[in-house]
Amino acid sequence: MNVIVVGSGIAGLTAALHAHEAGHVVTLVTKGALGDGSTGFAQGGVAGVYGAGDSAERHARDTVDAGAGLSDPVAVSTLVAEGATRIAELIARGVAFDRSPDGELLLGREAAHSHARIVHAGGDATGAAISHALSAAVRGAGIPVVERAFLVDLVIVDGVARGIRILVDGAPGELEADAVILATGGAGHLYAHTTNPVGTTGDGIAAALRAGAAVADLEFVQFHPTILDSAPAFLVSEAVRGEGATLIDADGRRFMFDVHPDGELAPRDVVSRAIARQAAAQGSPVRLDATMLGATTLARRFPTIDRVTRERGFDWARSPIPVTPAAHYLMGGVVTDLDGRTSIPGLFAVGEVARTGVHGANRLASNSLLEGAVFGARAAAALDAPAPANGPAHTHTHTHTHTPSGHEHAAPDHPVARTFSRAALQQLMWNQVGLLRTDDGLAHAQETIRSWRSEIAARRSVTDHEDANLLLLAHETVSAALQRTESVGAHFREPALIGV
C-alpha cells in the first residue's frame, strides 16, 4: 500500500516507521524540516511506567478525572494498556530516558497524577530526545521525506482519501496515495500567547474539515499554567511543581489550596484559571517559587529551563519567577476510532490533530507523547485491516462537519474590527475564546470572524493558506464553544469576563 504520512512529530514518525516495517511504501511529508513541530519542544515526559502501588488502572482513573469525565473510557484503557510497549519501543529506538545510579528508570510526577509514573530524557528535554531518535530511525530506514511541504488540501476521489495537494517551497504539487495519515499537530497560533512553535496553524484539521471529515471538541483548548512571563513564550514544565515548587501571590502566599485540594498539582485548567484570576486581582504576575529545590537540583533536573531563565535575567534558585498561562494543546480535532480511522475512508489521524476521546475536556500531563506513540502505531497496523461497519467511534460529545453553524447568536454591542490580520484574530481569540468565556464575548468573536472570512482573498501563498486555516478553525471553535453552554474542563463560561 502507498501511504503518505503528513507531519513529523512523535505520532507521524511512529506511524511512518510502523507502516514501513509492515511493508508499506511510505512517504513522510513535513511542513518544515524533519523533526520540526511541537514534539521537540516537549519538556514533560511520557506517562506509563508504573511503580509500587501504581497501575494502568490508576493511570486511567487519573486521565478520566483530569478530562472532567468526558474521556472515552475505551480509548483511555487502550492508551494505558499499550503504554509500556511503546515506551520500551522508544528505548529500543535509542531514546535514553533518565535512570538512577542502579539503572532503574527515574519516575516523575506531574499535576493531576496520583503517582510518579512519568519518564523523562535529559531532565526537561524529553521531546527533543524522542524527536532526534525517531528522525534518525526514519532516515536510517530510507523512508523518503519531503521537507518544507505545506499541506494545501486532501485529494478525495469518490469519497475516499487518495492523496494530498501541497506547496513545496511555494511550488504546487500533488502526491497520490492509497491512504493518508494526518499527524499535523494542533492550532496554538489561534491565540496571541502560545507555547506552540511557529507554523502550528491547524492545517490538518482545516483540510479535513474542508474534505467533510467529522471533528469534535474544538472548544476544549488547554492553556498551560506556567509560561515564563518574558517574551518570547517559554514553558516552565509542570514537573517543576511535581518536584515541589509552589505558586505564590504578590505577598508570597500560596493560593492554590484556596481553589483546589490538590493545590499546585490540580488539573491544568484549574491551575491556569486560578493564576489568571490571581494576577488580575493583584495587578501583577503570579510567581513560581522553586528556590527550595536549590541550584544544584534545578540545574541537574531541569537543565533547559535553568539555562533559559538565567539567559533572561532570572536566578530561579534564589528568587521566584513570574509565570502566566498560554495556549498549549487542543483536546479536540478530527474524530477517529481506536485505530486512527476518520469518517473519510482512507484518511487516518494521529496525535494532536486527532480527537481519539482520550483527553476529554482537559488533557492529563504527559499523556500527549504517549498518545502519539500508541495511536501512531495502531493506525499503521490498521492500514490493511477492514474498517468496522459503524465507522469511527463517536462518544457522547458532539461532532460536526464543516457546515454553517446552526447556533447563530446575536452579536453584542462591540465594535467589529474592519480589517483582518492574523494578530487581530489571535488577540480576539485570546480575549474572548480563551481561559474565561462569556456569551457576549463568544457572540462578538463569532460576528467578527464571520466578517473577516467574507473578505479573505484567494489562497496563494503559504501565509494565505495559514490565515484561511486559522479563520476556519476560529469559526468552528467559537461555534463549538457557543453550543456547549455548561462549563466543563478547559471550557469555562462565566457571566462576566475577568481580565486576564
Give structural notes.
With 500 residues, the protein is an alpha/beta fold. It has three domains: 2-220 and 331-381, 3-Layer(bba) Sandwich (FAD/NAD(P)-binding domain), CATH 3.50.50; 225-325, Alpha-Beta Complex (Flavocytochrome C3, Chain A, domain 1), CATH 3.90.700.10; 406-483, Methane Monooxygenase Hydroxylase, Chain G, domain 1. It has helices at residues 10-21, 56-66, 73-92, 126-141, 203-211, 238-242, 268-282, 294-301, 303-311, 368-381, 422-432, 439-455, 462-483; strands at 2-6, 25-29, 46-47, 118-119, 145-146, 149-157, 160-168, 171-176, 179-182, 215-216, 221-228, 246-248, 286-289, 321-330, 333-335, 347-349, 354-355, 399-400. The strands form five sheets. It has a five-stranded parallel beta sheet with strand order 5-2-1-9-16, with helices on one face. Strands 17-15-10-18 form a four-stranded mixed beta sheet, covered by helices on one side. Helix 1 (10-21) links the parallel strand 1 and strand 2 (25-29). Helix 5 packs across helix 13 (462-483). It starts with a strand and ends in a 17-residue tail after the last helix. Residues 394-411 have low confidence and may be disordered. Catalyzes the oxidation of L-aspartate to iminoaspartate, the first step in the de novo biosynthesis of NAD(+). One of its GO terms (cellular component) is cytoplasm. Belongs to the FAD-dependent oxidoreductase 2 family. NadB subfamily. Residues 3-369 form the FAD-dependent oxidoreductase 2 FAD-binding domain.
